[in-house]
């Protein structure tokens, strides 16, 4: 099933709760929260206190993308702040096995993320333990960058490996997703699509979410 996770990084932060409500009303399946520490990536965004306020104000499924050097240290803070899914980078300093176990122990869904330079095979040892694999389709750090089509063999390879193991994995893509690129990623086996500027940059959020969903749905192999 195709799921759309609009990235709050592109919202109007002066009205974050209203923006989140509008996106939920527009038919989003989850809300993508980009956490950056100015160390793992060259940008700073927000931390657990803001998520705590937002999740209290707006009930939704919170998809938290940790672009931080030590996700193991902060996983509990985000779990307590209302995260439903916590995704951390394999390139971070935290031990992946320990981090996966910690997030599961907190009763949350867990995902592993791969930067563009990290090969599909890096995810393979963890596929049996995680709920989701995030293939970055831009270098993490900023919204509004151009989609990297050369990541599609990676998405494909992870989908094929999951199929071979009989795993119904969620494969998420993040970066440069819009009505056109949605079809490309879905064709290659991605089913959870993050979109920032392609949703918040449009005047009609409902139409923007629907356009991405329809384009992906039509191209997703399983949907046919
Ligand atoms: C980038 C973030 C993305 C970003 C996507 O580091 O992880 O979630 O907000 O924004 P768009 O869809 O504009 O590329
Ligand atoms: Zn993200």
What would your notes on this structure say?
With 224 residues, the protein is of the alpha/beta class. It has one domain: Alpha-Beta Barrel (TIM Barrel), CATH 3.20.20.70. The protein is built from eight helices and eight strands; from the N terminus they run βαβαβαβαββαβαβαα. It has an eight-stranded parallel sheet with strand order 1-8-7-6-5-4-3-2. Strand 4, helix 4 (96-105) and strand 5 (109-114) form a beta-alpha-beta unit. Helix 3 (71-80) runs parallel beside helix 4 (96-105). It binds D-xylitol-5-phosphate (DX5) and zinc ion. Zinc ion (ZN) binds next to strand 2.
Could you say which structural class the secondary elements and strand pairing correspond to?
alpha/beta
Helix content: 25-40%
Per DSSP, the total helix count is: 8
Low-confidence stretches: none
Bound molecules: D-xylitol-5-phosphate, zinc ion
The total count of strands amounts to 8
What percent strand? 15-25%
Mean of residue pLDDT values: 97
Major sheet: arrangement of strands? 1-8-7-6-5-4-3-2
Which homologous superfamily in CATH is the superfamily? Aldolase class I
What characteristic shape results from the CA principal axes? globular
Number of domains: 1
Q: Nearest-angstrom radius of gyration?
A: 16 Å
What is the name of the CATH class?
Alpha Beta
CATH architecture: Alpha-Beta Barrel
Element string (H = helix, E = strand): EHEHEHEHEEHEHEHH
Calculate the terminal CA-CA distance, rounded to whole Å: 11 Å
